[in-house]
Amino acid sequence: MQVLGSGGPEVQDKRASTSYLIWENGRARVVVDAGGGSALRFGESGAKMSQVDVFLFSHFHVDHSSDFPALVFSSWFGDRKRPLPVFGPSGNKFMPSTTEFVHDLFSDPRGAWRYLSEMVEPNPEGTYELQPHNVAPTSTPVLVFRNADMAVYAVSVVHGAFPALAWRVEIGGKRIVFSGDTDGEGEGLTQLASNADIFVAHNAVPEGAVGVERRLHMPPSVIGTIAANAHVKQLVLSHRMLRTLGKEDETRTEIERRFPGPIRFANDLDCFPLN
Ligand SMILES: [Zn+2]
Which pLDDT belongs to residue 122? Predict the structure, then answer.
């Protein structure tokens, strides 16, 4: 599991915004989110979009989605010769659904980058085409995508009023779970993260956060409780923001009261092997 973007929305954190990549045997198989700066990190990682089997979105805040068109246009020059399935949440009045998001970007005649409308129109076999799908809200984990050697599950998580998903990728006998942005409410994320080999949780607020910060994100105590209840094997803290950077010792202490570790703080391009 490689972290392409370990930051949140702030550019002053000098980190790319949220994005993760799952490699298997030297091939980039899964991308989760594409926040600002992550397209550059994707290139630096050596990955190619032609290798990717599925693209997953946790939600459509800017810091999770704004480099998607950059990655797509970059890969237009590559050698991808098959459709790319894209999965993410359904919409509501605050956010587009995944199908709306992709069509708002690329469809003719209204899309911002409609000059790439070929990307979302039915194409002959053997061409690169984006195939967006909405995941209906679900309080328990559901299978969303499967191919010969991979299964991908999602569950809805609470992130204010914004439709949001946590993701689990099962590949090579391993389970990799991404919390996405959430306040940690409900049992779905704990179920999804059950026995995860790696649980990537978002360290967006410090312990004691209140108000809108706390309503959108989980403090370290909640991350530790979920990691412990789910018996995860390794915790990776990402989506680091100015309000949590520099507070790693306190964060670790709060989590270790509940979860024995190991706990790692993510930086851009860090790789977490699974052997
Ligand atoms: Zn975020």
Answer: 86
pLDDT recorded at residue 128? 93
Residues 6+ apart with CB under 8 A from 268: 3, 4, 5, 6, 7, 15, 16, 37, 41
DSSP helix/strand/coil, 28 = strand
The alpha carbon of 7 and the centre of ligand 1 are apart by a number of angstroms equal to 8
Question: Ligand 1 centre from 72 Cα, in Å?
Answer: 21
pLDDT for 163 equals 98
Does the global pTM surpass 0.85? yes
Distance 180 CA to ligand 1 centre (A): 7
Ligand 1 mean position to 202 CA, how many Å? 8
Q: Where are the alpha helices (DSSP H) in 77-155?
A: 98-106
Q: What is the pLDDT of residue 275?
A: 76
Round to whole Å and give the CA distance between 65 and 261: 30
Q: How far is the CA of 63 from the centre of ligand 1 (A)?
A: 5
Q: Which residues of the chain have pLDDT under 50?
A: none
- pLDDT for 255 equals 98
Tokens of 61: 């805040």
Centre of ligand 1 to C-alpha 182, Å, is: 9
